[in-house]
Amino acid sequence: MSRHLPLLLIVSSPSGAGKTTLCNMLLGEFADIRFSVSHTTRQPRPGEIDGKHYHFVGNAEFDQMIEDDLFLEWAQVHGNRYGTARAEIRAAATEGLDLVFDIDYQGARQIKQEYQEAVSVFVLPPSLPDLQQRLRTRGTETPQSLERRFKAALEEISHYDEFDYLLVNDDVDRAYRNGVRAILLAERTRRIRATHLAEDLLR
Known about the structure:
Order of helices and strands: EHEEEHEEHEHEHHEHH
CATH architecture: 3-Layer(aba) Sandwich
Number of strands: 9
Number of domains: 1
CATH class: Alpha Beta
Strand content: 15-25%
Number of helices: 8
Helix content: 40-55%
């Protein structure tokens, strides 16, 4: 049986809107989808594991990867750089898995430029006061960084029209069930990805 190319599912949102939670729910249910582990120049947060949550690298190594054209996409976010290595897609294809990306609009734009068939989902908060409250309750932000993240969130939201799907995360279980999960299942049956099912029968 021939194997279709991996479905590239991009999930983006402003900080605090819940994209990471939704991605983790997807990974917890489906064994045939893997998380694209980004490279970053920022320092690990408590509990983060190198190679699982991110590949933590220095600026010199990140610069060298850019020079060697090893990134499918990269961007600067909140003063640090993040990038997706091309090797992530090759590994998913080799293992016969689909791939989910937890990245911002800049990265989503670059991936879509190279892979037009990639599917992008933007997760919206139910309201701006709700988003501010979510950021506060994290307990990891200073008043200054909270203000920066909120301004960055407004910038992120202004790029909503670059995405295929818009999803309001007012209830995480509903946003997962009727949102990212439903999108994954529907996109897997699109003809461009499921052609092999009919072609195998016609052989």
